[in-house]
Amino acid sequence: MTTEQVRVSPEWLTLREPADAAARAPELVSEVRSYLPTDGWVAVHDLGSGTGSMARWLAVQLSGPQHWVMYDRDEELLAHAAAHPPTAADGAPVTVEVRRGDITRLDPEETAGAHLVTASALLDMMTAEELDRLIATCAGAGCPVLIALTVTGEVDLTPVDPFDRSIADAFNAHQRRATGGRRLLGPDAIDAAVDGFTRLGLEVLCRPSPWQLGPGEAALTSEWLMGWLAAACEQHPELGAVAPSYARRRLAEAAEGRLFVTVHHQDLLARPI
After folding, report:
1. Which residue stretches of the chain have pLDDT < 50?
2. Which of 41, 183, 269, 272 is the most interior residue, by most CB within 10 Å?
3. Residues 6 or more apart whose Cβ sits within 8 Å of residue 165
4. SS in 3 state form for the chain?
5. CA distances, 166 to each of 128, 187, 195, 240, 247 (Å)
């Protein structure tokens, strides 16, 4: 997507896809439908598409023929997306086109003709400058923009552990870190996106879209937990003294079906007034 980005594996995206689908705000889809043409093809441009999970979640909630244009920097993820295309609600044809490149530097002509622009789990990995360019491209398309699953920085774990807060704070600092000359937005991305779209004259709606992880998501919970803890320790190495025992406690709770985690996100719909 841009320089100095951590590669996301298709295995991780596949593991999280059901939780993503359950979390995204369905009420924003109802708002989107009113902007889409009711006859002919609907063109949707999905930015940072990964393995195509956003398309598989949304396309089945829309009727009529659809053409999805998927953008990502990772050729392997795009190949996975093309091999696992979405389906429409009424069985209408759905076609997929993949484009590899930097989504923060799209030529505005690339989104010409789009009826909808989408993205998911993307904004918090961007810098303010990258986000501004992306917002300008999206706004220039003249259509609704639906962006799902931007982290807010809030995480709730049950049962509570004394080290939860310090680990969460360290993780959020890691999300806002400077890396490769880039200062990431992390949990500040959702407010920055709302401000950016509003400045360009779009109306913005936000809805909560929390991951709700329980006994049925033990594998995802464990994988998320270890990544969350590793990032926190990278940011604040002093946490390494408590991390092993913390991980053992939490992984045991997840395996026993006793750990419940809520990872808070926001979904955003920006639409022309």
Report:
1. 1-4
2. 269
3. none
4. CCCCCCCCCHHHHHHHHHHHHHHCCHHHHHHHHCCCCCCCCEEEEEECCCCCHHHHHHHCCCCCCEEEEEEECCHHHHHHHHHCCCCCCCCCCEEEEEEECCHHHCCHHHHCCCCEEEEECCHHHCEHHHHHHHHHHHHHCCCCEEEEEEEEEEEEEECCCCCHHHHHHHHHHHHCCEECCEEECHHHHHHHHHHHHHHCCEEEEEEECCEEECHHHHHHHHHHHHHHHHHHHHHCHHHHHCHHHHHHHHHHHHHCCCCEEEEEEEEEEEEEC
5. 26, 16, 29, 12, 14
| Percent of the chain predicted with pLDDT > 70 | 98
In angstroms, the Cα distances linking 73 to 70, 102, 104, 182, 242 are 10, 6, 11, 18, 37
Amino acid at 143: C
Backbone angles phi, psi at 256, to 5 degrees: -90, 0
For the record, the structure tokens of 241 come out as 């003294």
At residue 221, the pLDDT reads: 98
Joined tokens for residue 27 = 């009420």
pLDDT at residue number 5: 53
**Tens of pLDDT, residues 112-136:** 999 999 999 999 999 999 999 999 9
Task: Encode pLDDT of 74-121 as tens digits.
Answer: 999 999 999 999 999 999 999 999 999 999 999 989 999 999 999 999
Predicted pLDDT of residue 7: 74
